[in-house]
Design brief:
Blueprint lengths: L2 E6 L3 H11 L5 E6 L8 H4 L6 H4 L2 H8 L4 E4 L10 H7 L2 E4 L5 E2 L12 E3 H8 L16 E5 L3 H11 L12 H9 L4 E5 L11 H6 L6 E4 L14 H19 L7 E6 L2 E7 L6 E10 L2 E12 L2 E4 L3 E2 L21 E3 L2 E3 L2 H4 L7 H16 L8 H10 L7 H14 L12 H8 L10
Parallel strand pairs: 1-2, 1-4, 2-3, 4-17, 6-14, 7-8, 7-14, 8-10, 9-10
Antiparallel strand pairs: 5-15, 11-12, 12-13, 16-17
The structure holds NADP nicotinamide-adenine-dinucleotide phosphate.
NADP nicotinamide-adenine-dinucleotide phosphate binds next to helix 7.
């Protein structure tokens, strides 16, 4: 009897786990469940639309999905259509790979004003995630502020500032392209609560900000230290490179650019200004002591019409799984919640690392499952299929995704790789033959 495993979530953590399970020296059947009809999680809806080479990893995931031992259950929401308890009954092992879909709350006064968004929502919006299709940000002010100094903050700033010509090879969702490219945004402030040495963006991403069409990177050179001081290892090389890049930016003189990205450091957000709609953001100037941002009591304001908080993600509690509210993840021991129940990726260890960081999680989970689980003769996908049919759930499979994929590719205007579908209803209409994908949804 094969070992029956259900993986909840079809992002990188889910797919690396599936691939690792297939390499075990025993017969394994893997069902990957996702609440969207489209697989690949953050590779589709998180990775920036102008970073297509990063998205190529989905070709590896596709090979895994096409393995005879793997099935994809799309458009199935665990917690709504089927419970974790039911999955645990039906399968020998259940793996949660649901990522960190929520924004860490900023908690400052005014954070609920119109025009303030978390990066999960804003990135989801420009990447065509159905949850954020109707976010409809009013981009009617020349200045936008992005809070955070990680790679997500850099992604958001870059997508807001890039010209339409620079985005022709991207899969920026139509609705976002229309809104961003019609907007008057000329200045984006990228604000970190600590200094340039503590910034978390990687150097390739930082340098990219110096090569955008018609855009000047702006930084006040006086705040940059000459060197990074005593830091060890890989961190040291990264920080040195970042500091050198920022020094190079600081020396640039305007040469007719019409847009600017302002790197602001030592700036901790304290309040969103404005009535119902954001009109500005107040920061407290900080200094860094023992690695922490400490307020100086001095404040300054930036007038703006958009604030995107790119300050980290958190996972969401699932009925039937434990949850650590403070950390925003599922407590676990190296990936094991208990025998037969596992967790991988951001919901296991928090929102850090790159896509390939999930490979190690997948290998570890597969190893634990191999050790813990007998081939219990459980029914696996057969039972799930029956349950979903009884409940009238319109489950989609990987062949359906390939139909949607082909429709997106066919609808694109080259050199764009695809024209994204962003409404589940539209996707299902296409699968039902009720829509030939000539109109955008
Ligand atoms: P991140 O790298 O952890 O950055 C989060 C940023 O938010 C930090 O600058 C942090 O400052 C700041 N922050 C947190 N709480 C704050 C608060 N209350 N007020 C102001 N600032 C606050 O996270 P991320 O940018 O969301 O990225 C998540 C992971 O995905 C990272 O590992 C990232 O490298 C990866 N990623 C990679 C790429 C790529 O490779 N191109 C693209 C996107 C994402 P402190 O440092 O002071 O805490």
């Amino acid at each position: 009897m094969p070992l029956q495993v259900a993986i909840v979530g079809s992002g990188p953590a889910g797919f690396y786990t599936a691939a690792a399970l297939l390499k075990l020296d025993r017969e394994v059947r893997v069902d990957i469940i996702d609440r969207l009809p489209t697989p690949y999680g953050l590779v589709r809806a998180g990775v920036a639309p102008d970073h297509q080479s990063t998205k190529n990893v989905s070709r590896n995931f596709e090979r895994t999905a096409l393995n005879d031992g793997v099935d994809f259950f799309g458009n199935v929401e665990v917690g709504r259509d089927v419970s974790i308890a039911e999955l645990r009954d039906a399968y020998d092992a259940v793996v949660l790979a649901v990522g960190g879909p929520l924004d860490r709350p900023s908690g400052i006064p005014g954070a609920d004003k119109d025009g303030v968004f978390g990066a999960a929502a804003f990135v989801g919006w420009y990447n065509g995630h159905p949850d954020f299709r109707d976010l409809d940000p009013r981009l009617d002010h020349p200045t936008a502020v992005v809070v955070g100094n990680g790679n997500v903050a850099v992604d958001v700033a870059r997508v807001l500032i890039r010209s339409p010509a620079e985005m022709t090879t991207s899969d920026l969702a139509d609705h976002a392209a229309e809104a961003i490219h019609a907007s008057p945004i000329t200045d984006v402030h990228l604000c970190g609560r600590r200094g340039p040495i503590e910034a978390k963006f990687t150097n390739v991403e930082l340098r990219e900000m110096g090569g955008l069409d018609g855009c000047l990177p702006v930084i006040e050179g006086g705040i940059l230290p000459d060197d990074i001081g005593d830091l060890e290892g890989r961190d040291q090389r990264l920080k040195e490179k970042n500091l050198a890049t920022l020094h190079e930016f600081a020396e640039r003189q305007p040469a007719g650019e019409t847009k600017r990205v302002h790197f602001r450091f030592f700036a901790s957000p304290v309040e969103i200004l404005g009535d119902d709609k954001v009109e500005g953001i107040r920061f407290e100037q900080t200094r860094v002591e023992a690695g922490r941002a400490v307020g100086t009591g001095e404040t300054f304001d930036i007038d703006c019409g958009l604030v995107v908080n790119a300050i980290g993600y958190r996972s969401t509690p699932l009925a039937g799984a434990p949850f650590d509210e403070a950390a925003g993840l599922v407590p676990n021991d190296g990936g094991r919640i208990e025998n037969g129940f596992y967790v991988v990726g951001w919901v296991m260890r928090g929102p850090t690392g790159v896509i390939s960081s999930n490979r190690g999680d997948g290998n570890a989970a597969a190893g634990l499952i191999d050790t813990d689980c007998d081939d219990g003769g459980r029914p696996g996908g057969e039972a799930l299929t029956t349950l979903l049919a009884e409940r009238g759930v319109r489950r989609t499979d990987f062949a359906d995704w390939r139909t949607l994929d082909a429709a997106e590719i066919a609808a694109a205007t080259p050199p764009a790789p695809r024209r994204k579908l962003s409404r589940i209803g539209k996707m299902l209409d296409i699968l039902d033959g009720a829509d030939d994908r000539r109109s955008v949804g």
